[in-house]
C-alpha cells in the first residue's frame, strides 16, 4: 500500500549485465529517470494540494447539514496497521496460490467501476461547466423505495441531469481504454482520481489520531519493504490503479514505453489526509494564513524528494513513509512549538460542536 518502487531501475545492475545478451531491458538514461521521478513527484503533490482544499468544502457541507462524518478513533488508528498487514499478506498468499492472470482479471473489473465513479466525481463539475449553455439539460430523479406507509424507506434516492450522464459517459470511455490497453496514462488518471477523492473524503478529526496512524504505518512500511519481499511482490503483481507509474524510457519509446518507476497511492493519501487536517486547523484559527498546511505540504515535498534520492542512490525499493512520516509530523509540530500553538493544535477537533451536542443528548 505504501511504497516507492523503481520497477525496472531496481534491477539496473542486472540489466547492465544482461542487456548485451538480449535477456534484459536497456537501463534507463539519466534524463529518462529525471523525467519519470519529476513526474511522479508532481503527480503525488497535486492530489494532496487539491484534495486538501476540497476537504474543506466537503466538511463545510457536512457541518451545514448537521451530519457528522465517519472519523477514525485512536483505537481505529492503532489497529489500522495490523489490519493493513493482514490484508497485504493475504493478497500475497492469494498471488502465490492462484493464477495471477485470473486474479488481475477480477481486480480489473472491480477497479474499472470504482475508477469511473471516482473520475466522474472529480471531472464531472468541469465537464458540466464546458457544456453549460450549449447543451439541452434535463433533470432526473432516480427513486427506489421499499415498504409502505411508516415502514417505507429509500433504497436509492439520486438526483442527476444530462450533464452528469455525459460526464459518466466520458469517464466510462477512459475506463474502457484502461480495460482494453491497461495504458499507463489511463492508470494514472484513475490513480489521481482515487488520490484526490481519498484526501477529500477520508477524515482525520484530531492531530493526535493522525500521529497514531502515521506512527503505526511508519513501522508497517519499514517492516514489509525491508523485512520481507511481500510489499514489492504485491506491488509488481497487482495490476490495478493503486499506484502511479511513469516510464523512464519515454524519450526512447514515447507513449508505448514500459520501463516504469512507480509510487503507491498510500504514500499520497495517508500523509494527505493529515495535511488536509492541518489546513482545516489553520482555517479554525482565523488568522488569514495557512501556516501549518504549508508547513505540512513543504515537509511532504522534502520527504518525497528524500525518498526518490535514496531510492535512486541505492537502486532498491524504499518504504516512503520512513521519510514522509517524520517530515510531515515533525515540521508542523516544530512550527507549532515556536508559535505557541501546540496545545491548540492537539485540542483541535473537526465537528466538535456536533460531538458535544451528541454527548449532551446522551446525558439527557
UniProtKB/TrEMBL annotation:
Transmembrane stretches in the record are 34-56, 77-99, 105-127, 186-204, 211-235, 260-279, 291-314, 320-338
Q: Which UniProt keywords apply?
A: Endoplasmic reticulum, Hydrolase, Membrane, Transmembrane, Transmembrane helix
Q: Which PANTHER family match?
A: MINOR HISTOCOMPATIBILITY ANTIGEN H13, SIGNAL PEPTIDE PEPTIDASE
Task: Give the UniProt family note.
Answer: Belongs to the peptidase A22B family.
- Quote the gene name from the UniProt entry: LOC101859173
> Which residue windows does the record flag with biased composition (Polar residues)?
1-20
Where in or outside the cell it occurs: the entry states: Endoplasmic reticulum membrane
**Residue numbers spanned by region Disordered:** 1-25
Q: Name one Pfam family in it.
A: Peptidase_A22B
Put simply, this protein is called Minor histocompatibility antigen H13
Q: How does it sit in the membrane?
A: Multi-pass membrane protein
